[in-house]
Amino acid sequence: AKHLLGIEYLAPDEITTLLDLAETYVELNRSKTKHSDVLAGLTQINMFFENSTRTQASFELAGKRLGADVMNMAMQASSTKKGETLIDTALTLNAMHPDLLVVRHPHSGAVNLLAEKVNCAVLNAGDGFHEHPTQALLDALTIRRAKGRLHRLSIAICGDIAHSRVARSNLILLGKMENRVRLVGPTTLMPSQISEFGVEVFDDMREGLADVDVVMMLRLQKERMDGGFIPSEREYYHRYGLDAEKLSYAKPDAIVMHPGPMNRGVEIDGTIADDINRSVIQEQVEMGVAVRMAAMDLLARNLRNRSAA
Ligand code: CP
């Protein structure tokens, strides 16, 4: 593929290939050198039109560790603030001959649109409610390492599903790899087209978590609830916040995940998040760098193959 725009465009064998390559980058990142030259001579531009800590930092580190020339556009200080459109901004950067463009944007579909206008490879770092493919890939690698496989697992994705591109990308990926996915949360925070996904839906945490292998918690995304129903944090924590009592319904070796940023005491109890026997939240961050290295490596190989042809 030319771009990484969403999990919906990946075949199961492409997911496996990317995760296998990411494993080699986990080793590289744990080594003393942490460096390779597979992106040497290539230019990577990161454009984040929305805030980010993990995705931005790990894409930047990934590019630098692979030897790319990495530029972070400060979008808050860019000419988009003077009214320049996304497309004009993209065309302007395209004229500087980047090879890899990493884009996060608040509007669903914005990254796909941008990919049609530029010559380089585009990686979606999260677009609106649509997709966050590298998050689902890093979650998949974390699950595969913790559970020894990425199929026939029972996985509960819990909380604010309606506003979550992370949930959407994970649902698609975990479904493609033949896992049983459950969505758990208040009906007000479930997407309207829930039947399309062919998954079980629960509004009770204890029923939803019963005997699952993986508990994936999501942030309550209040900034995306303009005009809609916003639950009180206290009530939400009581009914849907993951604490030891609710977690006891999952399998005894179930792992706890959260893509971050995390609201402690809202969707998750801080002691669960910090429990190294259950929580793999820090491993998710570590896998994020490796998965982004693998994604950019594979896209760069395709770029080179195309220019050699
Ligand atoms: N999980 C995730 O996308 O985090 P950031 O918003 O900090 O990048």
Automatic annotation (TrEMBL):
Gene3D superfamilies: Aspartate/ornithine carbamoyltransferase. It is an enzyme of class 2 (transferase). The keyword Transferase applies. L-aspartate binds at K82, R165, R219. Pathway: Pyrimidine metabolism; UMP biosynthesis via de novo pathway; (S)-dihydroorotate from bicarbonate: step 2/3. One of its GO terms (biological process) is 'de novo' UMP biosynthetic process. Heterododecamer (2C3:3R2) of six catalytic PyrB chains organized as two trimers (C3), and six regulatory PyrI chains organized as three dimers (R2). Catalyzes the condensation of carbamoyl phosphate and aspartate to form carbamoyl aspartate and inorganic phosphate, the committed step in the de novo pyrimidine nucleotide biosynthesis pathway. This is Aspartate carbamoyltransferase. It comes from Falsihalocynthiibacter arcticus. The lineage of its organism: Bacteria, Pseudomonadati, Pseudomonadota, Alphaproteobacteria, Rhodobacterales. The gene is pyrB.
